[in-house]
Amino acid sequence: MPFTENIGAATLDGLAYVGGLAKLGASAARAVVLDILERRRLAYGRAMHQAMVVGIGSLPILSLITFFIGTILALQSAYELRKFGAMQFVADAVAISVSRELGPLITAILVIGRSGSSFAAELGTMKVNEEIDALETMALDPVRFLVAPKLLSMLLMMPCLTIWADFMGVVGGAVFGIAAADFTFKTYVVATLNALVLRDILTGLIKSLMFGLVITTVGCQEGLRTGLGAEEVGRSTTSAVVKSIFLVIMVDLVFTTMFYLGIG
Amino acid sequence: MDELNSADTLGSAQAPVVSIRNLHVSYGQREILHGISFDVLAGETVVILGGSGSGKSTLLRTLVGLERPTSGDVILRGRNLCAMTDQEWRELRQHIGISFQSGALFGSMSVGENVALPLLEHTQLDPATIEIMVRLKLNEVGLNGYEDYMPAQLSGGMKKRAAVARAMAMDPEILFFDEPSAGLDPIIAAGIDQLLLKLKEAFGITIIVVTHELASAFLIADRMVLLDKGRIVAVGTTAELQASTHPRVRQFLDRVAEPEISQEIDYLQMLTGEVPRPRQ
Description:
The complex is a heterodimer of chains A (264) and B (280).
Chain A: H1 2-38, H2 41-54, H3 59-81, H4 90-128, H5 131-137, H6 142-180, H7 185-195, H8 198-224, H9 230-263
Helix pairs in contact in A: 1-6, 1-8, 2-6, 3-4, 3-6, 4-6, 4-7, 4-8, 4-9, 6-7, 6-8, 8-9
Chain B: E1 16-27, E2 30-41, E3 45-50, H1 56-63, E4 71-76, E5 79-80, H2 86-93, E6 96-99, H3 111-122, H4 127-140, H5 156-167, E7 174-178, H6 186-203, E8 206-211, H7 214-220, E9 223-228, E10 231-237, H8 238-243, H9 247-253, H10 264-272
Parallel strand pairs in B: 3-8, 3-9, 6-7, 7-8
Antiparallel strand pairs in B: 1-2, 1-4, 4-5, 9-10
Helix pairs in contact in B: 3-4, 3-5, 4-5
């Protein structure tokens, strides 16, 4: 029985963890709404600071990566399409793959590496340095003070970054299209616009919002659960990255299935 | 507890600001505090002494609401902490200040922002007034002109002073200090002691200090509580503790090391966790 017991225990642990994420997400979302309703100066300042770190700081590396991903996608598509003399569909393949899947996913993975890990490390260090205790003893809710601005900034910046990632992916595909598939810049843009429908963009943006929620809650939960000592901060950071990537892929699978079955 | 229990304020005419009755606190299955009881009067400085692992930090964390008691009562400003709602806790915490062992200043904020934070969050004061109050608080702790410094730019003693300024921001009635002199050189530590005395004299604040630094404790304390393995060994004034003949009090005050294990059987019992049997 130990094997089945282990599976049962792991399942319960997993459910408890996801329950903890849901509770943290709900508390942070409530705090965001209250901060907006009460027009709190400090909350705006912290959210804007986070948005700059999460969003603007990610732009250069995100641009570079998604540009190359677009080019790689075009190359891979062309490998098959040229067998059928259908190179004109390279633009369609790149546009749809990037906007529905790779744009949001690559953005999420990059943001996990930059911001999810930094959320865990920041909150973990604050826990070790008794700063979280200090907040509580000053009658300041750590979720409202620390997690809510991160959630707000992430929910604002993830869709923006995803749209930028989609754009750079298309530009990356266009470079191949113009260089090797008889496209001009104008014909590539027209082909891309004809291939895309609004729901392709929207499904990617809905996913990006969910990814933002997952990255923030996992990063912050891992940080707030950090034990004592510097080693524990390292453990929290690693754990935040691994769990975020896993949960982002799971959320991606669920939403892609939902869009496939019902909505789009 | 020894004969110094009579020095407790149980029979005092003055109502205590903090009253602890039969307090038990556990971490999981392990009980850390085993029935602690003592009172703190308004305006007095009580030092909680004890060695490592005696439970003094757990006691402090319980008094400020960071740990929940297993049983017993803690009455603070007339309200029982064990039966308070979150909203009541938030209100109470605006009347107490805590200076943590590490200072616990927020590293991403300047010293001035650290001190201003409770004022910004809990009062309707305009920014100009808050700025003046921050300067006043920093002046009180001898950190005039350090508003724009980041905590990382301060020395250990300055961090502690800044933490005191932040703890004082809301003009608390009770100040808690966790190891105020820990990790500081004797001169800086003496400066922190003088600061505590000055705050007490100037504002009449009730101060509760957790420490194991004897010199500091005897300088600042009106009364002392000596903890050992989660139990109170003695409560009394500094003179009463000095005069105590209780073996654990004497061992602590005279800085006598624990006797080394000389018998092989004792060593084996220590390794196996067995309770030593009385020797014939």
